[in-house]
Design a protein that fits this description.
alpha/beta, four-stranded parallel β-sheet, 17 helices, disordered C terminus
Length: about 525
């Protein structure tokens, strides 16, 4: 028989997978804040401590002691505990029952298996199994799956109950703006008006009667101390809860009449959302005779948007101000001609096309210098994040970090790299692209009058909003229109046109002094009349 003793020094030890210390941590938790003050946490703590004593384990640390839902394993105390046992090579995690550890099912099994690979085992006081055997691990994994199943059943029952409440007309969850949660005579949950209900009503009436844009509504609300973001306002305008109805994703596309009172009428809601109510009222957004309405042209006196109407007997369209007593109205054809006069003033003289193209290239290069510096910084940041990403991949490959942590940070680094790469692409501008956009811009500015005049309603609105983003004001007293803000490109080309026409300005080099652009046309309102 061979003597193998002399070869013993060549044997390899599984140093990483074996933890010989009899040390443990205890993790306790409850599912919600309402349970935090009861005796459950204390009881769990006592039972786990006694269990550790019976097994002659030294308790190194306590974790949890608060409410953390175990639907996912993205829990603050849970992650803190996992990090601790790995760092200090603690042999055991003790929980009162396996569902205290996790209710996440398959992902929880993955975590347990990854911990076991490095010699860390999860022990349950009420569900003891031999974690050193495959049979014991099978039953522990089964308990984890049953915890997930139990959690899913509870969720299904909760959803079923919520759906039935909704079908009965009761609002579920936090009350929307303008309402507050309350109880009816039968102690059922209901929503009632609060102090913001009057502002919700104003929002709908501003939209319906004054045709205010969302931005104008947000500005007006801010005067009352109501701060909303754009998407929130859009959601309010499209939420039928404000006319006494309920729409909810648990209703599978159904609309239910609510038990609560509507702040506005159903008719008002439909009109604001441009839906024919069957009462003879219908908003006609696209009217080729009235391209300046929709909030683009406003009354200079009260700054309210002009709307449109038609005198049917004469078949003549008019723009009008909705403010009572203002009396501002104008024949649509004449108003449209006023706007065409503005476009003519900004139209580019063809003899200036060639020098203007050259100057636009100089200008682009001048303002694009910072982009080159930005690109260098972005590339450096991208390189740094790529190095971090490669490092975490390496640590995951050798088992230093588990799947949950790896997935979290790999997703984070991937998203950061995508954002930086997109930003780098924005700063990169090929010469062919520059020539294309300059030619396109020159062509547009050289034909503003005809392009707007020959366009359809939608194209006209797109062009006029592009050129004058804040719209224009009509002064009835002087019968003039004036611009509020001019598109920066239009402003630039107009300024360059002026500069290039100033033959005695003293400019001797091909690159026109860019400082002259600072005080160009457009900084002050420009007025044109017939």
């Amino acid at each position: 028989m061979d003597n193998l003793q002399q070869f013993q020094s060549f044997a390899k030890q599984n140093k990483k997978g074996v933890i010989t210390k009899n040390e443990a941590v205890i993790y306790t938790r409850v599912s919600g804040s309402k349970q935090e003050d009861n005796t459950s946490l204390e009881s769990q703590n006592i039972q786990c401590t006694q269990y550790a004593s019976r097994l002659k384990l030294t308790i190194k640390q306590y974790f949890g002691g608060t409410y953390e839902s175990a639907k996912t394993d993205d829990r603050k105390q849970f992650k803190k505990m996992i990090t601790y046992v790995k760092k200090h090579r603690i042999a055991f995690i003790i929980v009162y029952s396996i569902d205290r550890f996790s209710r996440a099912g398959a992902s929880a099994i993955t975590i347990v298996e990854e911990l076991k690979k490095i010699g860390i085992n999860v022990l349950s006081v009420t569900q003891p199994v031999d974690v050193e055997t495959s049979t014991g691990m099978f039953f522990q994994n089964l308990n984890l799956l049953f915890s997930k199943y139990d959690n899913d059943q509870r969720r299904d029952k909760t959803i079923m109950g919520m759906r039935q409440r909704l079908l009965n007309g009761y609002w579920m969850g936090k009350a929307p703006l303008g309402y507050k949660n309350a109880r009816d005579a039968n102690n059922a949950p209901i929503i009632v008006f609060d102090e913001n209900a009057k502002y919700i009503k104003k929002i709908f009436l501003w939209k319906l009667n004054e045709s205010l844009s969302n931005k104008q509504i947000l500005d007006k609300l801010s005067l009352y101390g109501i701060k909303l973001y754009k998407q929130k306002l859009t959601n309010i305008l499209r939420n039928p809860v404000y006319c006494g109805l309920i729409a909810h994703n648990l209703l599978d596309g159904e609309i239910i009449k609510g038990k609560h009172k509507g702040i506005i009428t159903k008719d008002t809601f439909l009109k604001v959302n441009n839906i024919n109510t069957g009462t003879g009222y219908k908003q006609h957004k696209a009217n080729d005779n009235l391209p300046l309405k929709g909030g683009f042209i406003k009354c200079a006196k009260c700054e309210k948007p002009l709307t449109g109407y038609i005198v049917k007997k004469k078949n003549i369209h008019y723009y009008k101000c909705g403010t009572i007593g203002c009396g501002c109205n104008k024949n649509a054809n004449k108003m449209n001609q006023l706007f065409l006069n503005i476009l003519e003033k900004f139209q580019l003289d063809k003899k200036l096309v060639a020098p203007l193209k050259l100057q636009l290239k100089y200008t682009f290069q001048y303002f694009n210098k910072s982009n080159k510096d930005n690109a260098a910084t972005l590339k450096y940041n991208l390189k740094t994040i790529k190095e971090k990403f490669e490092k975490i991949q390496e640590r995951y490959a050798i088992g230093e970090i588990d799947t949950v942590i790896y997935n979290k940070f790999s997703k984070k680094f991937s998203e950061e790299m995508d954002k930086i790469e997109n930003e780098i692409n924005k700063t990169s501008f090929e010469k062919s692209n520059l020539d294309f956009y300059i030619d396109k811009s020159i062509n547009l500015i050289s034909n503003l009058h005809n392009m707007w005049n020959l366009s359809d309603y939608t194209q006209k609105q797109q062009l006029q909003n592009l050129l004058f983003p804040n719209g224009i004001l009509y002064d009835k007293e002087n019968d003039t229109c004036r611009t509020l803000k001019t598109n920066s490109i239009l402003e630039l080309t107009n300024s360059l046109s002026v500069i290039l026409n100033q033959k005695n300005s003293g400019q001797k080099n091909n690159n026109v002094n860019l400082s002259a652009l600072v005080a160009g046309t457009g900084l002050e309102p420009v007025t044109f009349g017939l």
